Description:
Elements: E1 2-7, H1 12-21, E2 27-33, H2 36-45, E3 53-58, H3 65-72, E4 76-79, H4 90-97, E5 101-104, H5 109-126, E6 129-132, H6 136-148, E7 154-163, H7 172-181, E8 185-190, E9 193-198, E10 203-208, E11 212-218, H8 223-231, E12 236-241, H9 246-260, H10 271-281, E13 289-298, E14 304-313, H11 324-334, E15 341-344, H12 351-356, E16 363-368, H13 376-381, H14 383-387, H15 391-397, E17 404-413, H16 417-426, E18 432-446, E19 449-458, E20 461-469, E21 475-479, E22 482-486, E23 489-491, E24 494-496, E25 499-504, E26 507-508, E27 516-523, E28 529-537, E29 541-552
Helix pairs in contact: 3-4, 4-5
Amino acid sequence: MRRVLLIGGTGVFGRRLARHLAAIPGLDLLITSRDAAKARALASAIAPAEGTTISGLGFDHRRDPGGEMARLAPWLVIDASGPFQGAGYDVPRAALSAGAHVVDLADARDYILGYGAALDELARERGLVALAGASSTPALSSAAVTALTEGWQRIDTIDIAITPGGRSEVGGAVIAAILSYAGRPIPIWREGKLQETLGWLDSRRIAMPGLGRRCVAAVETVDAEWLGPRLKVRSRIAFRAGLESPIEQWGVMALAWLARHGAIGKLDALIPALLGARRITRLPTSDRGGMLVEVGGLDTEGRLRRASWSLLAERGDGPYVPTLPAAAALRALLDGRLAPGARSAAGALTLAEIEAEMAPYAITTRREEPVPGASVFVAALGAAAFGALPAPVAALHDAAGLPVWHGRACVEAGTHPLARSLRRLIGLPEAARDLPLSVTIERVIGDDGEAELWTRNFDGSRFTSRLSADGRGGIEEAFGPLRFGLAIAASADGIAFPVTSARCLGIPLPRMLLPRSEAREFVDDEGRFRFDIRLTLPFVGLLTHYRGWLVPAAPDA
């Protein structure tokens, strides 16, 4: 019989993990809590599987955990206490010193990043396994990415989102973790390298399978730093989370905005009030939540591919999801499938192993792999005309082309007040010379077919447009509420893009108000992709004129 010591066993996630582990035969399960009576009450309420025993005891892991662990002599210690933001390694060190394997449900970036360096030598000396982050992230998220991209030649984008059901039970530890980075810089993998964004302020609306559209915002995880360099992701890794209640979502985002601008200090004092407010804000919500992992890149045959894995949890079973990787890790330890050492749980477990733990619950998963068609420019020009383009121009617009290009640019800007206002609305850069420039091209499949999202980064000033074929040999480019119809004149010298129509909020603009476009793409004497975009407006004059060169981003950028 294997003795398993479960720390934080009476918490939101700990209670569910205790019930799940109790169904595994051959365990001596010790549920702990700082309140011994709560631990004993929970233990007595759980009916264990045949051959498994369960008991509860008081245990404060923050006060001399080593002595108590040595006395209890567990085979495995599972820490479900949290929050792990700002936590040290006293608990896993004490577990290893007592001769026990150790697994935790940490999602705190700094804690996971430092875990191996702090504990690996001790774990290997003892022949023990120590895993940090056996939870939704990074264990489940990385397992889904690995399963979706097996054998792929290149990974361009990874987008991960979690949206729990609004009626799910939330403890103080979860809220403390959220508030610890709200409005603060957090890592994101963007343009093929590690950058920063702002926690809970970088937001968007996405379609969650089975749940409809939900607002999600950037959260701090270790995924960008772990997956980015290991998988050589060429463009983006983003991890976002959203709350079903709009009041809760926008409330957290408002607190993040206040923290960002220094209008409010530490947010921990608000935790009791936020927990109390949830009694009201959760009333119009549901017991259904989900997780979505989407990837894009080139598959085993070098074809552009997008794939997704999604999870839908119903009947209030969502809070089981973060506990199931820890249960899968326990089974892997029982079977001797994990090598000794201390490390992140990312990559330690397969998606199939974690999904097997979902069987008792109202949790379903599915995979989708829509096959993209021709690129926007091939669809607009036709294969023959596209094939006649200069090689660097065709390489940038090809469906299998690299997603990130770097170069330099010069920008001229019109001085008319209306020109300034339009540039701010669209996000166009102001006048500057010899700016560093990155262009990211993301190929997506929408309800209306193939499209490309172009993000231009002029030395930190970003703006994005959406390009799609109009079905008549041209292209439509959308900048927020503005949509422009572009004709394409292609030749062996390159491409020109005159504006043929424009709409604002869906309303067509009369011809006399159409902007004039002198836009072309060509190749310079050094064999580089060149662009020269000049836009002028009737009665206003110059809106913007930017020109420069681009080359593919290096693989190790």
